[in-house]
Amino acid sequence: MLVGTYCYLPEAMPSPVGHALAGLAVGLVATGRPGPDGPTVARLEARGALDRLARDPMRRRAAAFAMLGALPDVDLIVDMHSTYTHSIGAVAIVLAASWLILQPRRAGSSTPIRRPGNLRVVRRPRRLACAAALAYASHILLDWLGHDPTLPIGVTALWPFSTAYYDSGLHLFMPISRRYWLDTFWSHNLVAVARELLLLVPCAVLAWWWATRRDEVSGARGQEGSG
Ligand SMILES: [Zn+2]
User: Distance, CA 42 to ligand 1 centroid (Å)?
Assistant: First the structure.
């Protein structure tokens, strides 16, 4: 139902594609330099995108950041968009969960341990957990920068400390309409997604280039040092 220029039907802003690109970019940059023996982009035989993704740590990491960037919009399913999942409280939960998941574990066990031995070790778990939380937080930033025509306008960014809704008013991103019965549904959404891609694809490409280039540089240094 329309009220003036506003609508009571929830709209996402930006699209999952835009959020995924931002999450990937923020996560890769926040991960930073992996060190001489850190993961690099593997040169894998082309067996399909999913196979390359499953076998390459850098691609797995980038995919996880992209998913975290889009994750807060799960609240659209229960018609509670821009509330609890769009807050620093949710970011803190993602940080704690990521840190727990990335702790060293004995192979085949779900219990984190600190003793050396038969471990599945993730390098720099604290840094990676922070990067995961920042990739998730990028969603809140983009929604705050976007144009939200759904009442109440904005995101409850400071929950649980405040339930106030915050909106930058900058309208950097357009809302993605879910009102498929309107004539303008496709044209509006195509323009909105094109604008997101224009702003966010360069960020994601630059972040990927930076992360992989740093890997190669530090890897080359490590080989020189050990040679
Ligand atoms: Zn959102």
Answer: 33
